[in-house]
């Protein structure tokens, strides 16, 4: 997939919540057909935010040293049999997406309409709506958001 869009990826460093799941790591490695390398410190978002703040304070100086702050640990390699299955499935996914894409605006409009209707219904139901609301506003559960 990455090659199809002209991206030459040398290394993928995975971070965040999904790295706690061996299944998701394997699915991503297989779908991308690339090894995923895991930082020793799995949650690197805060580190990245702190690093960008430091770069900003220094006027961008030191960007090339960003990698020095992330120590790498385990990795997950793609399974060749699964890669072959994903390679066969991807063209079908593209066809399905393109055929469904025409309906996205209609789905969004229907969701908005139903959300408005649900909000109006919430106002008529009073304390019998989901969750019973609060003493200050019986029936106001906060979902969907009130228009008051």
How does the SSE layout of this entry go?
Blueprint: E1 12-13, H1 22-32, E2 36-39, H2 45-57, E3 72-76, H3 80-101, H4 104-125
Parallel strand pairs: 1-2
Antiparallel strand pairs: 2-3
Helix pairs in contact: 1-3
List keywords for this structure.
single chain; 148 residues; mainly alpha; 3-stranded mixed β-sheet; 3 strands; extended
Question: Explain this structure to me?
Answer:
It is built from four helices and three strands. It has two domains: 3-78, no CATH class; 85-126. It is extended, with a radius of gyration of 24 Å. The chain is mainly alpha-helical and 148 residues long. Strands 1-2-3 form a three-stranded mixed β-sheet. The protein has helices at 22-32, 45-57, 80-101, 104-125; strands spanning 12-13, 36-39, 72-76. Mean pLDDT is 79; it is low at 128-148. α1 (22-32) packs across α3. The longest helix is centred in the middle third of the chain and has 22 residues, at 80-101.
- As an assembly, this protein is single chain
Mean pLDDT: 79
Q: In total, how many beta strands? A: 3
Rg over C-alpha atoms, rounded to the nearest angstrom? 24 Å
Number of domains: 2
Strand order, biggest sheet? Answer: 1-2-3
Topology pattern, helix = H, strand = E: EHEHEHH
């Amino acid at each position: 997939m990455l090659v199809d869009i002209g991206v030459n990826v040398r290394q993928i460093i995975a971070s965040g919540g999904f790295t706690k799941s061996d299944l998701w790591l394997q699915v991503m490695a297989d779908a991308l057909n690339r090894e995923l390398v895991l930082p020793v410190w799995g949650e690197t978002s805060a580190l990245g935010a702190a690093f960008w703040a430091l770069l900003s304070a220094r006027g961008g100086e030191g960007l090339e040293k960003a990698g020095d702050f992330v120590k790498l640990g385990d990795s997950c390699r793609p399974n060749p049999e699964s890669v072959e299955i994903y390679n066969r499935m991807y063209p079908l996914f593209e066809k399905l997406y393109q055929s469904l894409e025409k309906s996205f605006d209609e789905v969004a409009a229907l969701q908005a309409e139903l959300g408005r209707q649900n909000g109006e219904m919430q106002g008529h139901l009073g304390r019998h709506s989901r969750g019973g609301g609060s003493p200050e506003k019986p029936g106001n559960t906060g979902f969907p958001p009130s228009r008051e």
